[in-house]
């Protein structure tokens, strides 16, 4: 992807030499206080009385959920909601299968709110028969978004996964009117992540077999790492106290990395490029990667994603974790580092305050 629309956002502040532990909620709180204290305060005051609709735009696995959850952690969970359209279709599908009451409620809602080419009965069959949101009509997706929002308190919204096809772009321009947010601002949040980053996030992903917590052998370690004599491989142990140091396992197919979702990523990119051309809607530009050449002047070292390697101490049989900066090639072949989520969210907060004119 072309990076020209995505200037490097400087998060380094001259004179601020304190290091923050960005993996710890308390450390993150101090970090945002130190680097964006006034902006966070303004946003919190704004969200007491107002809301917004933000469209999160980026490829699959670009960190949309992570960034919106971190934003919520900073300004207050109750003031902001994250609506994943993919999850929504799955949840509705599941509710229809398991609860007659949910089914009746949805039928009632659709009778009053859905306009499209299928009868309500056909529509229900469509949801029951398929769980891929891309196969469901845009009119139905809109009705489901409206349904979900009708059940929630008024909150600022991060919409994740819409528009998901080019024919939905037109709807997104008027979504706030359709969902009763006409008096609140809306804007687009573009997240630019090189494919190499997505590839390694998938390739080295592991999950706990008990609590399903995700980690990454290369990029996100747990506090204890084990070594398997038989396979000569290192493995992560779940940090969750109730999981008893369960061995985290890769999911089948993840070793292929980005390959199985390449077509999906290309579609995501087309929509992304199309939306970049839009006029009249405010835009926020987030980039995950920082060219190595400008990293030192733009960001602090602790804001970059480290890569982890392991060594076995033969005498003690203990595993030593070795940390170094993670280097990848961005989509234009520029040697780059990857930023941890907090500095990316920091740049989102600062751009948002400007857009909202706070
Ligand atoms: Zn676990």
UniProtKB/TrEMBL annotation:
Nucleotide-binding recorded as keyword:
yes
Q: Which GO terms describe its molecular function?
A: ATP binding; nucleobase-containing compound kinase activity
Which InterPro entries would you find in this protein's record?
Adenylat/UMP-CMP_kin, Adenylat_kinase_CS, P-loop_NTPase
Extract the Pfam families matched here. Answer: ADK
Task: Cite a single GO BP annotation.
Answer: nucleotide biosynthetic process
* Transmembrane portions of the chain: none
Q: Does the keyword Transferase apply?
A: yes
Keywords in alphabetical order, please.
Kinase, Nucleotide biosynthesis, Nucleotide-binding, Transferase
Spell out the protein name for this chain: Adenylate kinase
Q: Which organism is it from?
A: Candidatus Doudnabacteria bacterium RIFCSPHIGHO2_12_FULL_48_16
Traced from the root, the source organism's taxonomic lineage reads: Bacteria, Candidatus Doudnaibacteriota
């Amino acid at each position: 992807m072309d990076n020209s629309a995505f200037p490097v956002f400087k998060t380094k502040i001259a004179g601020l030499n304190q290091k923050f532990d960005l993996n710890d909620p308390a450390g993150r709180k101090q970090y945002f206080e130190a680097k964006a204290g006034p902006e966070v305060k303004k946003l919190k005051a704004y969200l007491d009385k107002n809301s917004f609709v933000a469209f999160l735009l980026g490829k699959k696995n670009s960190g949309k959920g992570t960034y919106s959850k971190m934003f919520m952690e900073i300004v207050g969970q109750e003031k902001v909601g994250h609506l994943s359209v993919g999850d929504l279709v799955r949840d509705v599908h599941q509710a229809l299968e398991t609860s007659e009451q949910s089914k009746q409620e949805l039928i009632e809602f659709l009778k009053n709110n859905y306009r499209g080419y299928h009868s309500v009965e056909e529509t229900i069959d469509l949801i029951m028969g398929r769980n891929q949101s891309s196969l469901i009509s845009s009119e139905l997706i809109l009705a489901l978004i409206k349904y979900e929002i009708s059940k929630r308190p008024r909150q600022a919204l991060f919409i994740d996964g819409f528009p998901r096809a080019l024919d939905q772009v037109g709807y997104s321009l008027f979504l706030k009117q359709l969902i009763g947010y006409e008096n609140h601002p809306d804007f687009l949040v573009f997240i630019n992540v090189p494919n190499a980053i997505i590839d390694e996030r998938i390739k080295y992903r592991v999950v706990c077999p008990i609590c399903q917590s995700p980690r990454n052998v290369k990029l996100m370690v747990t506090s204890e790492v084990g070594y398997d004599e038989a396979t000569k491989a290192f493995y992560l142990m779940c940090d969750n106290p109730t999981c008893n140091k369960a061995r985290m396992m890769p999911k089948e197919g993840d070793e292929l990395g980005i390959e199985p979702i390449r077509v999906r990523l290309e579609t995501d990119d087309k929509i992304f490029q199309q939306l970049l051309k839009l006029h009249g809607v405010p835009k926020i530009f987030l980039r995950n990667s920082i060219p190595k050449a400008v990293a030192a002047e733009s960001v602090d070292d602790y804001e970059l994603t480290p890569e982890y390697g392991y060594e076995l101490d033969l005498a003690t049989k203990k595993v030593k974790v070795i940390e170094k900066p993670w280097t990848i090639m961005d989509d234009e072949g520029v040697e780059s580092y990857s930023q941890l989520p907090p500095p990316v969210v920091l740049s989102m907060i600062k751009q948002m305050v400007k857009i909202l004119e706070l």
